Task: structure prediction
Amino acid sequence: MWATIRSKSIKFYLFAIVFLGICFVIYQKRLVLYAHFMSNIKEQRTVSQVIDDLYEKIEPIYQGLLTKANTSNPPDSIILLAFKEEKTLEMWFSVDSIFTKVATYPILGASGFAGPKLKVGDKQVPEGFYHIEALNPNSLFYLSLRINYPNPFDLKMAAIEGRENPGSDIYIHGKTSSIGCLAMGDDVIEQIFYTVAKTGKEKVKVVISPYDFRSTSEIEVPKTAWIKDLYQELNTYLQGFNH
Result:
């Protein structure tokens, strides 16, 4: 009997030691996570702080863009033309109703294929006419610009087709990979972020097209009537921007 009691006592102490060890590890991890959390809070930047941090590096580039548009002041508006098939994004400045292409950037990461985004999780990049809702100086993808997807047109088509969740949270951001967004790389997103912030996000229009309709005839014909109409609208709009 004493041997049985002694055996149970040993098991109990071993269990207690293991249990306390696990508790200690969890406690240590919580301390690390808490420290990381507090560190992140302290490191949060504002848009103004990002602009100040980037000034020395990006201001000369920004001034070069202004020179291309024959102005020394921020443009009246900015149009960002993104082409999914060609994987390029063009930046156009409007000054006194004259549009000038000031930069062309490669899109380093964009999932999906030709065709608009229809639902959450489809990994599609949206297609259509959008604007910038917000600038995020603390993005997980370095810096990001949130576009207003789904816009009223997207919501209307989703309602007509009975699609309850068309998705959301679409950004133009840094880094080199993305699912449903446009990844531009860190150097390029600095230029875009800086330029949009200096101009004002309310003055920026974002047009995302499956193809550059100005130069391609090899187009996958969409089967859905409203997508055909959207493509025709994109085609017509893009003809106003000469290469």
Notes: Strands lie at 77-83, 88-95, 98-106, 128-139, 142-147, 171-173, 182-183, 204-209.
